[in-house]
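Quick review question:
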C-alpha cells in the first residue's frame, strides 16, 4: 500500500484568513473534520514497517516522574498525592486508595492540538474554536466529537510507530561543543541533520522524532530550591523557532515530535527583528503555533530520555518502536505520554 501523499510546505493550499502553512483540511475524509493531524501518517503499512525494529526483546520507559519538578515552571500546579487508608474509606478493609491532582504540563506530556492556538485568530488545529466549557464536558456528551484533543487517540488504538532519537547532547559532547540547558541555545535544522548523519540515522515518513538535549537530566541533578532558581530564569535550550524549522518538520512527514526540553523550542522566543522577546512574542515565531495549530503535529515535552540514550548507544542504533497511550479523558488538553521504546 503506498504511503499517504500530502503537499510539501511551500505547496500547501491557502486557507482563507490564515497565514501560509496551514494544513487544515489535508487529512479530512468523507466530509468529516480531522482531529488527529499528522498521526494520519501512521497508516497500517507504516506501522508494519516499524515492527521490523523489534529484535532485542527489551523496552525503555520515557516517562519522567510526575513529581520530578518540585515547583513546575509557568506557575503550574505541582503534584499532590494523597494516600487514603482503607479503614477510612473502604468500610474497614485493610489497604489503600490514592488520589492524584496535577497539572498535565508539569512533567512528561503530550500537547493536544488545542494547547497552543494560532494567536491572531484564536483557532486551534483545523479551525477549531471550542471553548473551555466544551473541553470540560463529560465523555457521555462528547460521542463522535470533533475536538482535536488527546482522547481521540484511543479510537485509533493509541500511538504505535517508528521512533527515532536524535541525541543532540551526545553529539555535542562528542564534538566538544558544550552548552547549558538553561541558556538560549537555539538548535538549528542543520545541526539536527548533522546529528542524524553522525548517528547513521535515516528518516522515514511517519517517524516519531525524539530529541535529547539533557534538560531533564540537568534538573534531576539540582536540589528542589536550585530547580526553582533554574526555571525562574525563563531561558531554556530548544529548537530554533522559525518558519524554516517548521517547514523542515512538515516536509519530513513526522507523525509527532517530543523532547526532554520544557518547550521544544528555545525560550525566550525571538521577536521578528531577531532580538529576544517574551512569551507573547511566540505569536510570530513559535513552533507550537506551526506544529500544533497549523500542521496538527503533536508535541511532547519533558520526556526522560536518559535510559533511551544509553540503550541506543549500547545497541549502536537510534530507531525503535514507540508506543504511547495518553490518559482517556474527554477534552484533554495534555496528558502524561505513558511512552515506551521497544527494541
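Suggested answer, residue by residue:
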Amino acid at each position: 500500500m503506498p504511503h499517504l501523499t500530502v503537499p510539501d510546505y511551500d505547496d500547501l493550499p491557502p486557507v482563507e484568513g490564515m497565514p501560509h502553512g496551514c494544513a487544515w483540511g489535508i487529512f479530512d475524509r468523507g466530509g468529516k473534520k480531522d482531529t488527529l493531524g499528522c498521526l494520519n501518517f501512521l497508516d497500517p503499512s507504516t506501522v508494519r514497517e516499524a515492527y521490523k525494529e523489534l529484535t532485542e526483546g527489551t523496552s525503555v520507559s520515557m516517562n519522567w516522574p510526575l513529581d520530578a519538578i518540585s515547583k513546575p515552571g509557568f506557575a503550574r500546579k505541582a503534584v499532590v498525592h494523597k494516600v487514603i487508608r482503607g479503614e477510612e474509606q473502604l468500610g474497614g478493609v485493610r489497604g489503600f486508595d490514592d488520589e492524584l491532582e496535577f497539572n498535565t504540563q508539569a512533567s512528561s506530556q503530550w500537547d493536544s492540538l488545542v494547547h497552543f492556538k494560532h494567536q491572531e485568530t484564536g483557532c486551534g488545529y483545523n479551525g477549531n474554536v471550542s471553548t473551555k466549557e466544551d473541553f470540560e464536558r463529560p465523555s457521555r456528551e462528547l460521542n463522535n466529537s470533533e475536538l482535536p484533543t488527546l482522547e481521540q487517540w484511543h479510537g485509533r488504538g493509541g500511538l504505535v510507530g517508528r521512533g527515532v532519537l536524535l541525541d543532540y547532547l551526545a553529539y555535542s559532547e562528542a564534538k566538544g561543543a558544550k552548552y547549558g540547558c538553561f541558556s538560549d541555545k537555539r538548535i538549528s535544522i542543520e545541526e539536527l541533520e548533522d546529528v542524524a548523519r553522525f548517528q547513521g540515522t535515516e528518516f522515514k515518513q511517519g517517524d516519531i522524532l525524539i530529541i535529547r538535549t539533557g534538560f531533564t537530566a540537568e534538573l534531576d541533578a539540582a536540589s528542589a530550591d536550585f530547580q526553582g532558581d533554574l526555571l525562574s530564569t525563563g531561558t531554556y535550550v530548544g529548537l530554533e523557532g522559525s518558519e524554516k524549522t517548521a517547514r523542515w518538520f512538515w516536509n519530513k512527514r513526522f507523525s509527532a515530535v517530543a523532547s526532554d526540553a520544557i518547550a521544544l523550542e528555545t525560550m525566550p522566543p525571538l521577536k521578528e527583528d531577531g532580538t529576544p522577546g517574551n512569551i507573547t512574542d511566540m505569536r510570530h515565531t513559535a513552533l507550537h503555533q506551526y506544529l500544533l495549530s497549523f500542521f496538527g503535529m503533536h508535541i511532547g515535552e519533558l520526556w526522560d530520555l536518559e535510559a533511551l540514550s544509553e540503550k541506543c548507544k549500547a545497541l549502536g542504533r537510534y530507531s525503535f518502536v514507540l508506543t504511547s497511550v495518553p490518559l482517556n479523558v474527554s477534552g484533554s488538553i495534555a496528558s502524561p505520554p505513558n511512552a515506551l521504546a521497544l527494541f
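Why it works: The chain has a mean pLDDT of 93. The longest strand covers residues 159-167.
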